[in-house]
Design a protein that fits this description.
Layout (H helix, E strand, L loop, with lengths): L2 H14 L2 H8 L3 H15 L4 E3 L4 E3 L1 H29 L3 E7 L1 H18 L3 E7 L13 E6 L7 E8 L1 E5 L1 H7 L13 E4 L7 E6 L2 E6 L2 E5 L2 H9 L4 E5 H10 L3 E2 L9 E7 L7 H13 L21
Parallel strand pairs: 3-4, 3-5, 8-11, 8-12
Antiparallel strand pairs: 1-2, 5-14, 6-14, 7-12, 7-13, 9-10
Keywords: DNA-binding, Transcription, Transcription regulation
Family: Belongs to the LysR transcriptional regulatory family.
Protein name: LysR family transcriptional regulator
């Protein structure tokens, strides 16, 4: 028995003083409304209505129950209204996980703009270069730069991020300019520390794919460090283009092996599978995608974590 349906039928009968009028409002037959009330009386073990052929009036106990039913049904309606607002308005708490560099130098500015549009939304931003578990840590969304999103999460590609091999002019003058991927074996590599492939770079050109073992002199899980040390002339780095664009323009870094490219990576928004995507999450992802639709127009030095991220 659906007690809520029975309660709704009972309150409508009391409101109208008639089974027929209650049935008309509920778009049910008179017999169906009568059955709902009878089922309720049987379950409660009391008589709720005094009936005549033309009308129905609550008994004393029925009036008490009627008042409680009104309160209960009002609470349910309020809860449903509140829930529906969450589906059409950005409200409540949004928990976001992102890499440290991307958060401090880029995502913060975007979230500030997003908050201005959705003042009723609370955002908890957790920045970490560790591979945190989106589900276990309770994040609504995790943002990662990767070329291999995890299969257990729903992913939305926000923007692409091609990578460039580069070094400082001073380094290239001292060590020479590599002409082929195999030449990288004789150079000092600035290596990102989370790549599944180990200390190898995959480069593709007209002559096919090349897996190059990197003789690294520095291994870091932070792209800013790799870029800055490359500028200091300590080695060759493989970095997303938007990280090094300003350095390439001002000449502090130079691109090498431009005829070869590494697998292109993308910024992904990842979240656990769900039947109903919360409105707050949907508008946040849409905002990021629209904001980055023309690529990463970052200020100098602004860049996210780079390298393969195998877990969110």
């Amino acid at each position: 028995m659906d007690k809520l349906t029975n309660m709704k039928a009972f309150t409508r009968v009391v409101n109208h003083g008639s089974f027929s009028e209650a049935a008309r409002e509920l778009r049910l037959s008179r017999s169906a409304v009568s059955k709902y009330v009878i089922d309720l009386e049987i379950e409660l073990g009391v008589q709720l209505l005094n009936r005549t052929t033309q009308s129905a009036a609550p008994t004393e106990v029925g009036m008490r129950y009627y008042e409680r039913c009104l309160a209960i049904l009002a609470e349910i309606e309020d809860a449903e209204t509140s829930l529906s607002q969450f589906q059409v308005e950005a409200r409540g708490l949004l928990r976001v996980n992102a890499p440290m560099s991307f958060g401090t130098m880029f995502l913060g500015r975007l979230i500030g703009q997003f908050m201005a549009r959705h003042p009723d939304l609370q955002i908890q931003l957790v920045l970490s270069d560790q591979q945190l578990d989106t589900v276990q840590e309770g994040f609504d969304v995790t943002i990662r730069l990767t070329d291999s999103p995890p299969p257990n999460l729903v992913t939305h590609e926000i923007a692409s991020a091609p990578r460039i091999i580069c070094a400082s002019p001073a380094y290239l003058e001292e060590r020479g300019i590599p002409q082929h991927p195999r030449d990288l074996r004789d150079h000092a590599g600035l290596h990102y520390g989370y790549l599944e492939t180990g200390a190898q770079w995959k480069l593709t050109g007209k002559d096919g794919d090349h897996w190059v073992p990197v003789s690294w002199c520095l291994c870091s899980n932070n792209g800013e460090v790799l870029r800055d040390i490359a500028v200091e002339g300590r080695g060759i780095a493989l970095l997303p283009s938007f990280i090094v664009d300003s350095c390439l323009r001002d000449g502090t870094l130079r691109e090498v092996l431009s005829d070869y490219h590494a697998p292109e990576m993308s910024i992904h928004a990842m979240f656990p599978p769900t039947r109903y995507l919360p409105y707050k999450l949907r508008v946040f992802i849409d905002f990021l995608m629209k904001s980055l639709s023309d690529g990463f127009n970052l200020p100098a030095g602004a860049m996210p974590e780079q390298g393969r991220s195998e877990h969110p």
